[in-house]
Amino acid sequence: QVQLVESGGGLVQAGGSLRLSCVASGRTFSSYAMGWFRQAPGKEREFVAAIRRTAGITYYTDSVKGRFTVSRDNAKNTVYLQMNSLKPEDTAVYYCYADPNSQATVAGSAGYWGQGTQVTVSS
């Protein structure tokens, strides 16, 4: 079992930056692909970014390419989402996701979710 705790959300102006962190429990963190999803009010939860167990292999949804960067530090059991050039449409609750089987671009039945952190981008 993996437990995930997100932090780093907050209120920023459009064009600003935030860095989200997700700390995972367990000593098998490096065995999981890690992803970020987000959900805006009244919207379906959507994939944002993911990083495979092999560092350096990442995936992004088209709307955040060039603005967001996902990274991981296995020694700290932590995955990060650096968000630059934020837009109002980025406003959502952001969830950390861990998957032992896939590349974490799609939620699977064996995956684990954090509780989420709110990101609000003002105009």
Explain this structure.
The chain has 123 residues and is mainly beta. The protein contains no helices and eleven strands. The strands form two sheets. Strands 2, 4, 5, 6, 9, 10 and 11 form a seven-stranded mixed β-sheet that branches. A four-stranded antiparallel β-sheet has the order 1-3-8-7, with no helix packed on it. The protein is globular, with a radius of gyration of 13 Å.
Keywords summarizing the entry:
single chain, 123 residues, mainly beta, 7-stranded mixed sheet, 4-stranded antiparallel sheet, 0% helix
Task: Report the span from N to C terminus.
Answer: 40 Å
Output the helix-strand order: EEEEEEEEEEE
Radius of gyration: 13 Å
Task: Characterize the largest beta sheet: strand count, sense, and whether it forms a barrel.
Answer: 7 strands, mixed
Q: What is the assembly state of the chains in this entry?
A: single chain
| Total number of helices | 0
Shape, principal axes of CA atoms: globular
Structure summary, number of beta strands: 11
Mean pLDDT: 93
